[in-house]
Amino acid sequence: MHITYPDLPVSARRDDILAALKANRVLILCGETGSGKTTQIPKMCLEVQLGSEATRPGKLIGCTQPRRIAARSVAARIAQELGGELGGLVGYKVRFTDTVRHDTAIKVMTDGILLAESQGDPLLSRYDTIIIDEAHERSLNIDFLLGYLKTLVEKRSDLRVVITSATIDAERFSKHFDDAPAIEVSGRTYPVEIRWRPIEREEPATPAKGEREKKDKDAPDQIAAILDATDELARVGSGDILVFLPGEREIRDTAEALRKHHPPGTEILPLFSRLSVAEQDAIFKPTSALRRIVLATNVAETSLTVPGIRYVIDPGTARVKRYSARNKVEQLLIEKVSQASANQRAGRCGRVADGVCIRLYDEADFGNRPRFTDPELLRSSLAGVILRMKSLGLGDVVGFPFIDPPSSRLVTDGYQLLAELHALDEAGLLTRIGTQLARLPLDPRIARMLLAAEQQRCVNEVLIIASALSVQDPRDRPMERAQAADEKHKLFADERSDFMGWLKLWRWYEEQVQHKKTNRQLQTLLQDHFLSPRRMREWRDIHGQLHAQVAELGLRENEKDAGYDAIHQALLTGLLGNIGFKSDDAKGRPKPGEGNYQGARGIKLSIHPGSALAKKAPARGTPPDVYALQGARPPGGLGAGPKWIMAAELTDTGRLLARTVAEVRPEWIEAAGRHLLTRMFIEPHWEKDGARVVAFERVSLYGITLVPRRKIHYGPIDPVLSRELFIRGALVAGEYDTRAPWFAHNRALIKEIEELEHKARKSGVWLDEERIFRVFDARIPADLHNGAAFEQWRAEAEAANPQILFLRRDDILGEGLGADHTLFPETMAVDGVACKLKYRFEPGHPLDGVTLHLPLYLLNRIEAAQIDWLVPGLIREKLTALLKCLPKDKRRPLIPLPDTVTAFLSAAKPGEQVLTAALAAYIRKKTGTDIHPDAWKGEQPAHLMMNLSVIDDSGQELASGRDLAALRQQLGGAARITYGGGAEDSEFERTGLVEWNFGDLPEQVKFKRGGRELMGYPALVDNGESVDLRLLDAPDVAEAETRRGVVRLLRLALAAQFKQLDKDLSRETALALKYRSFGSPEQLRAALIDAIATRALLGDDDTPRDAKTFGKQKERAKPRIAVVKQALLHDAAEILDLHAQVTARLNAKPQFTAAMRDETAHLAALVPADFITATPWTHLKDLPRYLRGILKRLEKLPASEPRDSRGLAGVLTLQNKYLARRGQVKGEAPARGTPPDVYALQGARLSGGLGAVPAALDDFRWQLEELRISLFAQELKTPYPVSVKRLDKLWDELARQPLA
Prior knowledge:
By secondary structure, the protein is an alpha/beta fold. A hairpin with a 2-residue loop joins strand 3 and strand 4. The strands form 7 sheets. The protein has an 8-stranded mixed sheet with strand order 4-3-5-2-6-7-1-8, with helices on both faces. Helix 3 (37-51) packs across helix 4, helix 16 runs antiparallel to helix 17 (459-469) and helix 17 crosses helix 21 (533-553). It is elongated. The chain starts with 8 loop residues before the first helix and ends in a 5-residue tail after the last helix.
């Protein structure tokens, strides 16, 4: 065979190259763009092979190319130059296409094909020469081949390796192959002029060195610059133009702009790797005389030679895929190309005439760029490399002879991915799954899905999806017909899963193929649905090859269609790092610019807008490169979507987007990632119902919580701790369901000792749970930690020793019992009724101490002194605490305090008087020291005050507390009403009485309630229209209620007189006018009638207790009505007149703030709205004098303010003491700092009745009024001597009296 060479620079070095090939096993050939090395070196290798004496038949010259389109193009050119057809002497093999025959000598293939062949033929024995072309691209396959070939050269002495590139670091490659010789060949035959035309921007155009642009912000400016450059080149001369662009979207945008900009006569052609053969031929075999503008990705930088290119326009960017080991995502970013790539682009012109390369950036920017593009190895996931190396037995990736070894971080990331896929075990060795994965020439994730599909019985469906993920999306979406494409594509959409959308599309396509009439009709149908016929065929081809490989592995296909759950559980095995969770918690909401899903390892992601799961449109202003993926899919939602998702891939285009998304469930993720889960066990505890130890498990994967809180059986996880918890919970604490005699015996014994501890307030002193634990710990076998196993053991153990589980006192008690049962009685007698006492030792608990369960009807019968003495077992502690409250000078004579307590208890009579009064009397007798009641007011522990639980007849608690006065204020009225309600056959419980027809009314009677004899006090209770006969629980209350009831009966008996009285009072219009600030005329009339009735009908007379006395009282009262009426009208008119005068003075401009504020409050308390009925008759006549006293004081203020202030201080001191005491009596203790005007809201009432003020305290209140007269208006006189000193002394006596 005679081989000829065209006139190319590499041909001129033919002799040197042939000599080097014969003399060396490895040759480095550096040829500039246009040198012809790609097509001529394989021919030279063939010439050497043919001329060699050791030529072996059947051996191939293998030539690799980085892309399929380049492999086919180069093979065709070589075949043409050798004078043969493609598929003969020269063949090519790319994915799914193989034209190599038995007589083929030169085989052009992609580097991936050669790598795949290394699995079946580790020594690559079919080849005697291997040419690695375009090595400068440093793709992952190229770097792997370079390292693999280095080891292979050492194993095969007959193998020849040629490394070629246009721009290569020859020295580095030479050192890699042990100082192999390097030959450099010059390039282009015509000069190329470089013109710098940087894009004009408002912002600085030169970023820092190494900076990557995540968003193509300057797309409009770039297109305008390209249009200007094409115009400039058109003026230079004829010739085709090659424009480099980052991606297909940019090509479409620029093509549209060029078509609008250029006149007819210009042909716009796209060039990228996915072009069909016919589309390639339109570029490489031009038939038109039109000027061509070829818009290409970086596929046209090397290997491919577009004929006729004279000019190049280089924007200086390319879309580069980078892998983030931190985020585990592929980032498809637009980056600045390296100097080597820029020179490669410039080398594409100047082939037919002097060339011009316009760079749309400046020379300084070019100088700041790196010399070479980063090898793909340093920006890729190494999982596939590691897996292949493991399967080939090449050792560890760290020791593999890569030209640029990957960083330890990338290596670690690759191992992590393989561990995620369960391909490697903890020792880093291949698992069964890993061995199977290595046999599939696929992305390890996709291969893992196929293996899982057999278990889930969905191999058919996952084959379709896996093949779909291995090709470019066949769905087209032209910008000019975007809406129409969206409508057509809805036919294949699935609202829950984009993967199911692939299945819908596949099944639709298969049906169309089966029913097609012609291929042209099928192609037309696909185009009508905006589907690429070529990509659909490619998808089908990949599916066929995958199907064959799956069959070789022996994976069984499913006979029935698989469901959603099975398919996605299989897919999850390969996508565990691509899961996402959307939290409902407000704290989990994304920050501006973040995704709304939490991803693995703390990343934030969003569903890609083109997904069917994205429901809402993105915010206005979303950058267009978000849609660049998948052929500019329709805008979708960034905020909507299911709670749990998985994605086929995560891509960072300025925002982390999940592409090809499906809804999943956390339990699927847990099952698929069982080998990766992080489990945390919290709160292990004994569970009575299940008779086992349980804990709560929190399961997470890569930082995402799959199961926040799940109850599990903890026994198998930690048997030692579980056994301890079983003993403590079931046997010591008694949380165990059984009727066994030993259990009942042990609980009864423990309860008895617990009750004694509560009484003596010595919790844990006698009942030693640790001793009980040690007893059971010694008797129970070591492997028992649940009820079932325990019962099985117990049946055998009790057969040998029936008492093995019975506890004795000695097993429980930490020390001897020291409590006297008589000191802690079970009941307390209240009015002859035995009321239950309950003890509890739990400081801080509301029931700490002793609680008396008191029936409601006895609430007003119990004496404060009785409960003040508590029980004998606690009285010593309470007395000691009280003595410690005393001032040191008064406590010193009582030391030692225990002896004083003992002496007091031997002399005192419990319950006769309150404890503090009895103790004060004892101290006065012993030491002569007078103890004021306020000295005992130090804070006492809660357990030293009796807790009262007021219960109804059914035993239900109505209220509880330690303040008897407050409980009486709350429930005292109910207690009085119900006191006699339970009487057996009582004649003193009647209602609706309107006359005296019930016989005599004794002051007290005995009755029986619940079998017990009680003392009751009959009373007539006024109900407004009638009276009720009741048995009350207190004589003073019964007396007060009866007097009001008698008045009501007398009013009913004298109805005619009171009717006339009402008419007379209705004519008192003048008085009603004065009263208008207090109420209406009707209210005035009602108040006057009530006051007249109270004074005229009974007044100060004795209470009638039989019908005869009642009749006499009625006759005595008749003539009083008119007299009392006149007196009351006179007094009321005078009071209202004076009130108006005082009010006018107080409403004037204040000059003396303290005095004015005091009198304002004083007036409100002295003359409240109900003063006519609320003020006792004897004091009602004093009100005019008190009001005049206010006027006198206000007159004197300008001349006597200092004296007034001193007097006011004394009044307020006594007044505040009175208010505090009265609040305590009524159960309404005022808060600290209560202002004096509270006095205005708490006017005095008649003594007696619910919440009544004692007579002595009420009298003190009126003496305070007389004190004001003596201090501020002495000329008005007082009926008796009064001073601050006198009232201080009187108050000391009042303070010593008990509250209740």
